[in-house]
Amino acid sequence: MSEQWVRVYETQNLAEASILKGLLEENGLPVQLLNKQDSAYLLGTAEIYVLLKMLPAAELIIEGNRLN
After folding, report:
1. Backbone angles phi, psi at 46, to 5 degrees
2. For the residues of 1-68, what is the DSSP string, one character each?
3. Residues 66, 16: contact at Cβ < 8 Å?
4. CA–CA separation, 28 vs 42, rounded Å?
5. Handedness of CA 25, 31, 37, 39 (dihedral sign)
6. Most CB within 10 Å of its CB: which of 14, 42, 64, 65?
7. Do residues 25 and 31 touch, judged by C-beta distance below 8 A?
8. What does the pLDDT look like over 8-39, one tens digit per residue?
């Protein structure tokens, strides 16, 4: 049975999403980055997904490392 992926973070800043993806991976979490930005105008979002069972850990990591 395949595992369910859930969105844990969404941003309009692709660089921020890439940094956050790396941070989650460094902490051992499997991560998927979905880039929904238009390549010509850079409009849209980037979304980070983790496995449902990893959601609490991902939320703690994100909250502890806010990228303001």
Report:
1. -120, 135
2. -PPPEEEEEEES-HHHHHHHHHHHHHTT--EEEEE---TTT--S-EEEEEEGGGHHHHHHHHHHT---
3. no
4. 30
5. positive
6. 14
7. yes
8. 999 999 999 999 999 999 999 999 999 988 77
